[in-house]
Design a protein that fits this description.
heterotrimer, A mainly alpha (258), B alpha/beta (319), C mainly alpha (298), A: 258 residues, 80% helix, globular, B: alpha/beta, six-stranded mixed sheet, four-stranded antiparallel sheet, 14 strands
Amino acid sequence: MRRAGAVALNTFREAVRDRVLYNLVFFALLMMAAAIFVGQISIGIEEMVIKSLGLSAISVIGLLIAVFTGVGLVYKEMDKRTLYALLAKPVRRWEFLLGKFGGLSLTLAVNTLAMAAGLFAALLYVKHHLERADAVLLVAIYFILLKLMLVVALALLFSCYTTPLLAILYTSALYVAGLFVEDMRTFHLTTANPAVAGLMRGLSYLLPNFENFNVMAAAAHGREIPSVLILQNTAYAVLYCGIVLTIAAAVFSRRNLK
Amino acid sequence: MPVAAIEIDNLTKDYPYGFLHLKKKRSLEGLTMRVERGEVFGFLGPNGAGKSTTIKLLVGLIFPEAGTARILGKPITDIEMHRDIGYLPEQPYFYDYLTAAEVLDYFARFHDLTAADRKERVARMLKKVGLETAGKIQLRKYSKGMLQRVGLAQAILHDPQVVILDEPMSGLDPIGRREVRDIILELKRDGRTVMFSTHILSDAEMLCDRVGVIVGGKLRGVGAPGEIVGMKAHGMEILFELAASGASAAAIIAKATKTGDRYRMQAPEEELYKALEQLRGVGAKILSVAQVKASLEEYFMHLIEADRAQGAAVEVSGK
Amino acid sequence: MSTTSSRNWLLLVLLPMGFAGVWQLQHRIDGQRAAVHQERDEVVLRSGKLVKAMSLEYAPLMADIYWTRVVQYYGDKHARHDPNFELLWPLLDLTTTLDPNLLVAYRFGSTFLSEPAPRGAGQPELGVELLERGIKANPEYWRLYQDLGFIYYFELKDYAKASAAFAEGSKNPEALIWMKIMAAKIAAEGESLSTSVFLWNEVYETTKDPLVKDNALKHLQMLRAEEDCKQLDALADAFQKRTGRRPTRVVELVQAGLLERLPVDPMGYPYVFGPDGKAALNLNSPLLEQQLLHGDTK
């Protein structure tokens, strides 16, 4: 586990020294500023606009980082052969994967925190004080982070056995599918074929449901989110990440490096 | 029999290729070989013969179709075995955003060393491979030779019993090669086992106690360098200058090849002194007398031709 | 290699267990989220144009997804007898903005927008607006004119506009001949039983949507029952002329030879005479509930 930690810290260090990340975070902060501007135009709902736009920015930027960096995590090491010297050490392949996952998750957490700070700063600027209801934003941001970690796990899985381009495609496709998973359940209303409807319904429970983590509407309106949901979503993310990482470890363990 | 450093038994590897990876090329066939403790073993062969494949199999980067191997008695599937080996990959490349010191420190963390121990070893290694001044520069600025040295450093950092090097001399200038040779000899002095792959005969001759020759995925011979069948010396070569002319001189010159002002003539070992007498007779100036060896390239070509004649698969590049 | 096969077995056991856990957890989360969810969140982004812009080239696909939500929304409300169709118009607005050529959305949408509560939103003006948008984007589809005329005739009771709509639709060479006939008939007579029955029947015969078909059937049954009751009243009048009193039970009409047998309503229940002496539906008939809920449906 210590070895996985070493890999994680190294991954984090790599991300920190990668200038692209700073640009993205800067862009997100720009969005916050834009949100303030937009908010000024729509009187009465400035707060709601800032919150929704801010959360969307955090989510989108986070997704970009998660997908594009996540996909390169393993591929880059294989392609550049940095992995060769590493695997000759007494470290198991799954420890390596876990470390990669941890490192990128840590990076995302730090980025998200930075952007969250930006959001609260923007809010403070407009409202001049914060209320208890604004704490809901923290929950929304936490959920976004959970979502990002699941995306990273998926990106990692795909990057273990296919090229970066395909991995990006698969991960993105799965994410988009995961947003509309609930619509799959009502397919039986519009399709005549019961087998298809049944299949869709089954899939809708098994595919990663990213809508679980979407509480933007509640957060924007300052509605409280029950702590039960927080626990459940955390459990969901942990469980699903566990499944995906296990599959990734199994795939990677038997992979012949070029 | 003492435990061998490396014991390979019937190792076999296929590479899939073609559409949907349905076809297979056998890149290593039934390799069986021993490397004894404390010796320097050279693994010789042309490009694509299977040297890198063998080494990658040993280190666990790829998995065999059949066969097993043990290092210091532990099977290669055992993760603990990795504590005792050091590995230098072919054309090493490391995280270019790190400095040499950071890379070595990173790799050192995978061995059970205290923080102080780690620090000390990293410093020592940098000095050993001649990178102490460049230790704080990011690797992206390093030359190939410098990267090779970093690779060597990470391979021996934890003082392993067995060191496996894949083409350690490639891409190095003569100074670099000399330095690598010195390190290998130093390792031998300390009682470590070194196995390295190369396609340059002279390196093998200078360093190795024994060599193994592999062509087309098959092991062709193992033994002390120079002992390998087909690599025996055949004859002597005389280098001389001849200013004189005349019938007897012309007869000698006809048997020699001319390069600039000099002539080369070959004579079987038994007839060496007779030839020298002849040359003395015509007043030739003898410059040197040396053994003629088949070059490794000729030897390889000979083996490859034999393979082709048998209709067996020619060597496959594993890259 | 025993380590690989034992690992494989482990995976074979762990993974299904993991997914089973996911399945369970998802159900719980759904329950929890339903508690948090407020309906108006469905259409947080009310602006159809904004959603369309965000969908890039996938607007038709998004339209399909929103269309599914429309059907689900309506079906859900209908099944729970919930008369609040607040979101029907916004959802339809979004759907048709995303894909102006989604004909089924206009047809289904206009039907249930204009149906009075509790069967629909009771907003016929919005139904008209929806259809006009549909006609603008799909001028060659004459059925939309049919639906337009429908709303004017049944809900808005504007017979001039109804006739005009049918007339306009009949100009399409593919339109069925009855469009022209209807235009003339409504212009001349306004509302009539035969027109109503015909229009509902046309919908019943041609629609593929089960909800729409069911709705049409109910209307036809009500119309039939109404007509039957009218005829029974006429017979009751004849009875009164003959005997000097009003009949209290329908069977008396049979006994008097005015009817061959006991008439039943479209659901199979015999008609009765109400306390006011007028023909009415049987108390057990499901149609009675319909009638009470929808009042004077034609």
